[in-house]
């Protein structure tokens, strides 16, 4: 597939009966193609009549960042899934995508955003905050997100994204004298706002599904099954509703640690959800300073290829939040 880098190709199905409006995204990051493959498979089944949208509307966007996808890398000019909002004076490729993508998100009720990750690990879903009226991320649809997350397939679910980012930005601002656009973006208080976070600002709700490691041959199947389960759960297709998992592990992101220098190194090849013991060596700074686990917990999103000044890994612990089916 060689997409045009001057447009976003969407596929929309609108039923004659009312129902929720769902949008499904793939390749928000260009080297994360499991979602693209899952969406392509669903499109083929819709075209063949094996799946039929009977209520509501569905928009499928297999390649959300065509430039990054064409290059086979995470981003075109910058990370599309950060600082996502309409921009009247777009400065880069991702700004121009955002000016098309954000109105698309606003026109829908529910988002399923399909991703993958760098290192080994099991698939997991990411949900937003509990219902609240706080300034950071006010929200009123936590129950809907929880119910869908329990039906997507993966056992692991994670919360705490935007609050963890906000704390990370504060630390970044304390040590950074921004001079380049990438640095300015990473120290913007809106830095943690991606697709699902923007969706919530528009009155909708959504789930980010990490389908597995980028090259895992099972990841496209995870993406495909999650889309079908979402269609069935929202009753957009006539199919038995998927059962909620009862064996989920819910974690809360507590802290993000940035890579400060290209010679910062992990102590070993970590995988997402590897357990950590308090005081365990996670990595070493270029000057020899050890990075130790602050408490018992788990490492999430370890990225040995992270650019200096950007997020390197996350620390998570078990959450006391009760998910509603």
Structure description:
This protein has two domains: 11-233, Aminopeptidase, CATH 3.40.630.10; 252-318, RNA polymerase II/Efflux pump adaptor protein, barrel-sandwich hybrid domain (OB fold (Dihydrolipoamide Acetyltransferase, E2P)), CATH 2.40.50. It is built from eight helices and 14 strands. The protein has helices spanning 34-48, 66-71, 93-106, 142-149, 161-175, 181-186, 195-201, 219-233, and strands at 11-14, 21-25, 57-61, 110-117, 124-126, 156-159, 205-213, 249-259, 265-266, 274-276, 281-284, 290-292, 297-300, 310-318. Helix 1 crosses helix 8. It is globular and about 65 Å long.
Mean pLDDT value: 93
Which regions contain 5 or more consecutive residues with pLDDT less than 50? Answer: none
* SSE run: EEHEHHEEHEHHHEHEEEEEEE
* CATH topology annotation of the largest domain: Aminopeptidase
**Computed CA radius of gyration, to the nearest angstrom:** 19 Å
Could you name the CATH homologous superfamily of the largest domain? Zn peptidases
Query: What share of the residues does DSSP label as strand, in percent?
Result: 15-25%
Major β-sheet, in short? 11 strands, mixed
Which architecture name of the largest domain does CATH use?
3-Layer(aba) Sandwich
Q: Oligomeric status of the shown chains?
A: single chain
What is the name of the CATH class of the largest domain? Alpha Beta
Count of helices?
8
User: Could you say how many structural domains there are in total?
Assistant: 2
Query: By helix and strand content, what is the structural category?
Result: alpha/beta
Principal-axes geometry comes out as globular
Amount of helix: 25-40%
User: Biggest sheet, strands in spatial order?
Assistant: 1-3-2-4-7-5-6-8-14-13-10
* Topology, number of strands: 14
């Amino acid at each position: 597939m060689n997409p045009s880098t001057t447009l976003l190709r969407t596929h929309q199905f609108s039923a004659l009966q009312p129902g929720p409006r769902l949008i499904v995204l793939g390749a928000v990051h260009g080297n994360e193609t499991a979602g693209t493959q899952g969406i392509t498979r669903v499109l083929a089944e819709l075209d063949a009549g094996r799946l039929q949208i009977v209520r509501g509307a569905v928009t499928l966007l297999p390649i959300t960042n065509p430039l990054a996808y064409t290059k086979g890398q995470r981003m075109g000019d910058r990370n599309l899934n950060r600082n996502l909002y309409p921009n009247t004076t777009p400065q880069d490729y991702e700004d121009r995508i955002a000016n098309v993508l954000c109105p698309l998100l606003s026109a829908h009720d529910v988002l399923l955003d399909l991703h993958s990750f760098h290192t080994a690990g099991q698939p997991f879903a990411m949900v937003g905050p509990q219902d609240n009226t706080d300034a950071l991320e006010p929200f009123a649809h936590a129950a809907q997100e929880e119910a869908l997350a329990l039906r997507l397939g993966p056992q692991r679910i994670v919360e705490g994204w935007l609050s963890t980012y906000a704390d990370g930005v504060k630390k970044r601002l304390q040590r950074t004298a921004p001079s380049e656009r990438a640095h300015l973006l990473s120290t913007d208080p809106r830095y943690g706002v991606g697709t699902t976070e923007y969706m919530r600002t528009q009155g909708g709700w959504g789930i980010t599904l990490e389908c597995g490691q980028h090259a895992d041959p099972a990841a496209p199947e995870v993406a495909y099954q999650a889309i079908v389960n979402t269609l069935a759960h929202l009753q957009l297709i006539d199919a038995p509703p998927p059962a909620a998992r009862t064996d989920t592990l819910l974690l809360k992101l507590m802290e993000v640690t940035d890579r400060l220098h290209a010679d910062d190194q992990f102590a070993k090849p970590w995988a997402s959800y590897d357990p950590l013991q308090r005081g365990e060596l996670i990595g070493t700074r270029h000057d020899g300073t050890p990075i130790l686990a602050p408490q018992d917990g788990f490492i999430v999103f370890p990225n040995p290829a992270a650019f200096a000044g950007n997020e390197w890994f996350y620390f998570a612990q078990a959450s006391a939040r009760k998910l509603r089916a």
